[in-house]
Fold this sequence. Notes:
Blueprint: E1 4-14, E2 17-28, E3 32-36, H1 43-51, E4 58-63, E5 66-67, H2 73-79, E6 81-83, H3 96-107, H4 122-134, H5 150-162, E7 168-172, H6 183-191, E8 198-202, H7 206-212, E9 215-220, E10 223-228, H8 230-235, H9 237-244
Parallel strand pairs: 3-8, 3-9, 6-7, 7-8
Antiparallel strand pairs: 1-2, 1-4, 4-5, 9-10
Amino acid sequence: MNDGLSIVGLSKNFGGLQVARDLTLTLPRGSRTALIGPNGAGKTTFANLLTGVLKPTSGKIVLNGQDIGSLSESARVRAGVAKTFQITNLFRDLTVRENLRLPILEREGRTHQFFRRADGWSDIEAEIARLMQDLNIQPLADKPVRGLAYGQQRLVELALTLAVKPKVLILDEPAAGVPSTESHFIVEAIKRLPQDLSVLIIEHDMQLVFEVADRIIVLVNGAILMEGTPDEVVANKQVRELYLGAGHV
């Protein structure tokens, strides 16, 4: 498959312990896929294999026809695989606009032009404005990050990740730590992501998963138990017993 991310036979061993077992799946361009599973299922390991934090024992990771399995973390970001809450940390004393300006300047190779103001590039300022509009955070533009609610800070981190222009975006528990009164902001932001962006959502909040995902992969003990639509996953008795709980039985 040349259009999207393709994972073939991906495995990871730590000595005699196998933590990822022959994972084979695709993330087509524009797909919204959720990865769920009980604690210890291997979700974080899988994300770390995709981003280059861990090197696989075997298998391939192919993005738009390019094998990226041997690339470093930074090279994978440049190739188009980005993960929220990993690309950068927020500068809490800077405003939202100033935070967003930094990764764009770095991406465009303009961070070392000492005799020009950082806010003097009209194209970059226009891109910052578009990012804030896409995530509906324009009212926060000139507020210091440290004064924002936690859910708002998550949106700023998401905007920072989008600033590197990924082809595949991994959202690692985007609602973690966000109060229930603010979680709808995260859902709305995911729904507003570019339609041609492939999104992998690793999340325990099943309400969020069912609202935004068109496909769900269930991971158990480092292996894929099943993959299907939200309705197919809910209808699977084994998934309900292992993970979803009595409320979905």
